[in-house]
Amino acid sequence: MESLPDAVVQYIFSFMNNARDVAVCNCVSKRWKDSLPYIKSLYFPRNSFDNQSGIDHPDTIVWKMISSVVKLEELVVYSPFSSIGLASWMLLVGSSLKHLELRMDNLAEYQNCIESPSKLECISTAKNLESLKLWGVLMVKSPKWDAFPKLQSLEIVGAKLEDHALTAALRACPNLKNLLLLGCEGVRSVLIELPSLEQCKLDFYGVGNYSLTLTSPKIEFLEVQGCSWISVRETACLRSLSISNNAGRVYMVDFGKLAALEFLSIRGVQWCWNAISKMLHLASEVKHLYMKVEFTGDFDNLQPFPEIDFVDFFSSHPKLQKFDIHGAMFAALCQKNSLKNVQSGFVIPCLEEVVVTVRSPLNAGQKICTLGRALMNVYQLELGIRHARIEQLSC
């Protein structure tokens, strides 16, 4: 190291980010200490100050470290901090930061949400952010954010949100390409209007009766959990779509044409049959279809799947290569009346893999009998579908 030019040493240190390592290297030699201001990233783990015995407050230690950096581009803080500490950090490096990740830890602290400045309010100083990730957020009031014109990725994990607060936060990020809301609760109606959005993952927990309206013409990847009413009209670019509701029911789906869709996953205990049939109709070009819905029926009425014409289904999905289905859908496809239109010349041109899963203990005897009859029917149709490339059938 001593024989290397200063520029090379500085380049090596620019890849260092753990705050503890930086502090240790700072004590090795004057040459190393003089090179450390050129690091680009600082990461403070959760336990950064567990054994801290000095008189300085952790907020002050973080401030001293980032103040020694010439141009900090990434800051990740998992260790506890105050809003005052965060405000002082942002005044130092807000203009140079491109990536910011914070463990807020204020879910149960309503006082921290209304104090001034709040932790969310402090973030507004970093106007050149390209990515922002927040853990444990209480957002019941609209954050006082100006626009983040360069922000392309926003991730919020574990949050209590209000509808108007989330809408205001997204409005301040007009050029987002990636949005992730994971483990969030509190909202009832989610409205997202982001013209540049390409990837979106939304995971709401609770009673599962949220509604979603998404307007993003460039959306390519969409995953939604916990919504009962979903409207996404601009879907020309959508290639991967996953809809699930583990706690509630899916009543309504409103999608535009899904001409580019290659992967579709629909999951949940209960979907209205209109929602299922509409998704199957729209996803005619899909290559991989995953279905794990146990019941249909409206409101509290749990009903089995109606019979589905075997020939019509596979003729309507000519590009289907992989089919993962729950036992309810498999039984609906393989009922006697569903198979009556199968002729000896019928082929499924692209199918390579079928996976059938029967997992629920409800009505176990009836399901076993139904599955047994279905398998017998499929076996009897072996000559009729001998050209289908079915490589795996697991039950």
UniProtKB/TrEMBL annotation:
Gene3D superfamilies: 1.20.1280.50, Ribonuclease Inhibitor (3.80.10.10). Transmembrane segments: none annotated. It comes from Populus euphratica (Euphrates poplar). InterPro entries: F-box_dom (IPR001810), LRR_dom_sf (IPR032675), LRR_FXL15/At3g58940/PEG3-like (IPR055411). Residues 2-34 form the F-box domain. This is F-box protein At1g10780-like. Residues 96-202 form the F-box/LRR-repeat protein 15/At3g58940/PEG3-like LRR domain. The gene is LOC105117066. It comes from the Eukaryota. It holds the Pfam family F-box-like.
